[in-house]
């Protein structure tokens, strides 16, 4: 098929260098945000490039309505920049919201507009140069290192140069463009489905919660009944509802299957089918669910939410066995306690969920952030080097903040001695810096650096 696709040759030409920085971060989701802030706070000059007009990634681009747990059910596992952002977001929300959520760190609803403003301000405070509406579409390489990244935006085609590049695109775009190795999906290329998340207003939360028809918070009964009567076309009898106030909630409800988020045709189909499904679901909610009679559809995601695309092949691949045995590694830079949460690839298949016991977590080694064969790229976020099962767990936003913070801190340490060799880092120095910044890398590591 590939050799039947017609091609054209782009003539060689000179393009302007837009900027040079110690660190270029591609992608402004939780991983990119953590990376840019950490690198800048550690003294590096940082350029953060994001294709949308705001930061936050899935939380703002796709309206994913809640942060997954920061804790292992006993203590916070994700601390540092991730926890700072969670707490700062909460502190800007309505008083009633703060009263309800002040002490809670798990499944906190996201106010996407507050998050966007907060992240703009944090970048300005840290001195990060942010470039919005810009896509990283090409890289130039020499001797196994990226020499420049090519960016596209309204100004035209330009280049950016850095010592270290942080790939926080969640699809491992930089690694892919640099010819790095990656895996995608399961054995037959199957991928978790996408979801078009949405926000409804004009709801009556008290009426909803007190309704006997829906058994308190749980919509399962109503969904199953409607499915069996052919009134609701969703694959799963679950809806994630995150209340921002008594009248407004974000919904993670319904799946669109067979979408590869690294393919533009699939993303287009996901947008169109996703919006149609949201219209259908909203109509059903209005007709069926007490308190939702006057629901007003305020917003759908700018892009369908994508759970799974490329995973890099890194110096270490974190496996399900590592997850299950709660393994620690000498070069841990974060820990993960979230469960394996793989949504079904087909409407007829089931969910895969594997929980760790309370208080347990596994390590995320620095090596899992380093794409094989590339010297000056650190990958953070959804695309790090794991097997498929573990990606179903490490992928969530709190983890991405922590991985980003580690990547950014590592990049700044490397920049201090103008090194482009990500593998040359003194891991102990990186861990010490992370612990000082408030990260938790497991008691063994944290205790070792307690008094330093
Ligand atoms: C439907 C759904 C529900 C989910 N539910 C939850 C949940 O409840 N809680 C939770 O914590 N997690 C949840 N997740 C997982 C989580 O949202 C993502 O895995 C996480 O956001 C990944 O973070 P990231 O920083 O790696 O990438 P993303 O959040 O995807 O951010 C990547 C950013 O990079 C930008 N970008 C990409 N490519 C380029 C490029 N080439 N040039 C420039 N910019 C680029 C994108 O615009 C985006 O802003 C959910 C995901 C989905 C899809």
TrEMBL record:
InterPro entries: FAD/NAD-bd_sf, HdrA-like. One of its GO terms (molecular function) is metal ion binding. Pfam families: FAD_oxidored. Keywords: 4Fe-4S, Iron, Iron-sulfur, Metal-binding, Oxidoreductase. PANTHER family: COB--COM HETERODISULFIDE REDUCTASE IRON-SULFUR SUBUNIT A, FERREDOXIN:COB-COM HETERODISULFIDE REDUCTASE SUBUNIT A. This is FAD-dependent oxidoreductase. It comes from Cohnella nanjingensis.
